[in-house]
From TrEMBL, chain A:
NCBIfam families hit by this protein: gcp_kae1 (TIGR00329), T6A_TsaD_YgjD (TIGR03723)
SUPFAM superfamilies associated with the record: Actin-like ATPase domain
Protein EC: 2.3.1.234
Example GO BP: tRNA threonylcarbamoyladenosine modification
PANTHER family on file: TRNA N6-ADENOSINE THREONYLCARBAMOYLTRANSFERASE, TRNA N6-ADENOSINE THREONYLCARBAMOYLTRANSFERASE, MITOCHONDRIAL
Co-factor remark: Binds 1 Fe(2+) ion per subunit.
Annotated gene: tsaD
Protein name, UniProt field: tRNA N6-adenosine threonylcarbamoyltransferase
Organism annotation: Gracilibacillus boraciitolerans JCM 21714
CC terms in the record's Gene Ontology section: cytoplasm
From TrEMBL, chain B:
GO MF annotations in UniProt: peptidase activity
Keyword presence, Hydrolase: yes
Keyword Hydrolase set for record: yes
The species this protein was found in: Gracilibacillus boraciitolerans JCM 21714
Keywords noted in UniProt: Hydrolase, Protease
The protein's name: Inactive homolog of metal-dependent proteases
CDD domains linked: ASKHA_NBD_TsaB
A Pfam family reported for this protein in Swiss-Prot or TrEMBL: TsaD
SUPFAM superfamilies associated with the record: Actin-like ATPase domain (SSF53067)
Transmembrane segments: none
Top-rank taxon, per record: Bacteria
Biological processes annotated in GO: proteolysis; tRNA threonylcarbamoyladenosine modification
Length: 338, 236
């Protein structure tokens, strides 16, 4: 009796400020998942300093790999393919992961090398919890992205809407900075909005053209900054930080939710998944959940919080599909645009 | 001993294989481009040419650890560290990119100042000395204003060999400062050779893989400013 062969993919992710590696079985099951966060280091500067991020990656990379293999009790001999984030992201940071992946694949001569798009990774984080149903709509929201992506089958990604200026997470970080919240500010705004904040200020919503699924957050960001600035000038009664956070969040969440629901209906999708760092946002989760409760035939899914932020299990999961579809990069693995 | 040498620390991409202290393959590209694209195909090429397959036949990896381009040294180190770690057998050796260049003056006795242009009048340089067929470090690799460095060298009142891919930009200043003590070899001697890196690395002690980091020499600007602020706070 021949046993069904299991497939093991090693994933590597260094696109921003997390040095990460993971081993995923059959595209859906995490065997080990290690993330070395640099958040403490970047906190000093109120944001990610690209050169410092790249330096940390070189310091961490082999230790993270060792831990990944130790936890899995495996060696490179067990690995069928090496998947690495090739972009988008910080160019210098990406290079560390890419060259480590090449070093591993080359040293063992056998496993193919696979370049994975970071956003494909975020989407595939969901598959580690729940199998996809097509057609599928993914709302990808993070510090670098705000996109609505339609998937008709595995490995096919059609962007139907994207931000024309700031990413949602970027707007969060900038508003947080104006409110003097410590880095990373996005989650802090969510916290403030959840704990006693009331959406008393009516900030603008950018709906853009009637039929567009694109987003725009720079107008909202400026409105918040101006409102805070004016309040400060007037002196007098101070604005409650919680209310500003709640009002800002209400605007972002409303636009994201409305557009997602509309796109889901228009494309008659079976499943909606939310991916990226902002998928951890409680305000967004609650609103989407209540809206989709009315759409019985559409299945809404969020990844667990630990898989929302950057990790390598999601890269391995996306790499598994590329591997199954016979993709293989050459030794150059030319980098994608940042 | 089968040795693979990797240098991506500056404009030159260099890869070499040596066996028992004999250079068997050497590959050098000296054009401005992304080393991340060219490195692994180059390694694959020299390994094939010398009939080596990495899993069981590679015994040592030598890498140029900078100073130089921050991105460049990281490409070399990420590759070398990961390969050395995963192959388990080969120790890793890191060599100063300036020391490697200094070895291009092994025919000349005396002082050697290899350098890389670091913009805004600055250079990465160190002082090396060739004595009784051995080249040793006399003054640490550093990031310094070239004029100030030349004044320091002048004080030795001895001939100094200058080696650099950027020699043309700075030649007139060097000659103006050091007059007859400025020794500038022919253009071919300014190109760092990966074969020499392999031989140099064969003689050095291996490093701990996890702890090995590039020698950037310079702090990141944001970090330097942050440290200054911390110091100020302490003194207040
Ligand atoms: Zn991400």
């Amino acid at each position: 009796m021949g046993e069904i062969m299991n497939e093991y993919i090693l994933g590597i992710e260094t696109s921003c400020d997390e040095t990460a590696a993971a081993i995923v079985k059959n595209g859906t099951e995490i065997v080990s998942n290690v993330v070395a966060s640099q958040i403490e280091s970047h906190k000093r500067f109120g944001g990610v300093v690209p050169e410092i991020a790249s330096r940390h990656h070189v310091e961490q990379i082999t230790m993270v790999l060792e831990e990944t293999f130790d936890q899995a009790k495996m060696t490179m001999k067990d690995i069928d393919a090496v998947a690495v984030t090739e972009g988008p992201g910080l160019v210098g940071a990406l290079l560390v992961g890419v060259n480590a992946a090449k070093g591993l694949a080359y040293a063992h001569q056998k496993p193919p090398l696979l370049g994975v798009h970071h956003i494909a990774g975020h989407i595939y984080a969901n598959r580690l919890e729940k199998e996809f149903e097509f057609p599928l709509l993914a709302l990808v929201v993070s510090g670098g992205h705000t996109e609505l992506i339609l998937m008709k089958t595995h490995g096919s990604f059609e962007i139907i809407g994207e931000t024309r200026d700031d990413a949602a997470g970027e707007a969060y970080d900038k508003v947080a900075r104006t409110l003097n919240l410590p880095y990373p500010g996005g989650p802090k705004i969510d916290q403030l909005a959840q704990t006693g904040g009331e959406a008393t200020i009516n900030f603008p919503r950018a709906w853009l053209e009637e039929d567009s699924f694109d987003f725009s957050f720079s107008g909202l960001k400026s409105a918040v900054i101006n409102t805070l600035h004016n309040a400060k000038q007037k002196g007098g009664e101070t604005m409650k930080q919680e209310d500003v956070a709640a009002s800002f969040q209400a605007s972002v969440v409303e636009v994201l939710t409305e557009k997602t629901v509309k796109a889901a209906k228009q494309y008659r999708v079976k499943q909606v998944i939310v991916a990226g760092g902002v998928a951890a946002n409680q305000g967004l989760r609650t609103t989407l959940q209540s809206k989709f409760q009315l759409e019985k035939e559409i299945n809404l899914f969020f990844p667990p919080l630990s898989l929302c932020t950057d990790n390598a299990a999601m890269i391995a999961a996306a790499g598994s599909i590329a591997y199954q579809q016979g993709h293989k990069a050459n030794w150059s693995l030319t980098q994608m645009q940042a | 001993m089968n040795v693979l040498a990797i240098d991506t620390s500056n404009q030159v991409l260099g890869v070499a294989v040596s066996k028992n202290d004999e250079i068997q393959a050497e590959y050098t590209v000296n054009i401005k481009r992304n080393h991340s694209i060219g490195l692994m195909p180059a390694i694959d090429h020299v390994m094939r040419e010398t009939n080596l397959t990495p899993p069981d036949q590679l015994e040592r990896i030598v890498v140029a650890k900078g100073p130089g381009s921050y991105t460049g040294v990281r490409i070399g180190l990420s590759t070398a560290k990961t390969m050395a770690w995963t192959l388990d057998i080969p120790p890793i050796v890191a060599v100063s990119s300036l020391e490697l260049l200094a070895h291009n003056a092994r025919q000349q006795h005396g002082l050697i100042s290899p350098f890389f242009d670091a913009r805004r009048g600055l250079v990465y340089t160190g002082l090396y000395e060739n004595s009784r067929d051995r080249i040793f470090l006399k003054k640490e690799d550093q990031n310094i204003n070239l004029e100030q460095w030349l004044d320091e060298l002048k004080a030795y009142q001895k001939p100094v060999v200058f080696l650099s891919q950027d020699i043309r930009i700075h030649q007139s200043l060097i000659v103006e400062k050091l007059k007859n003590d400025a020794v500038i070899p022919s253009p071919i001697d300014h190109l760092p050779r990966p074969g020499i890196l392999a031989l140099l690395g064969s003689q050095k002690n291996p490093e701990a893989i996890h702890q090995l980091t590039p020698n950037y020499i310079r702090l990141v600007e944001a970090e330097a400013n942050w440290l200054k602020e911390q110091e100020k706070k302490q003194n207040d």
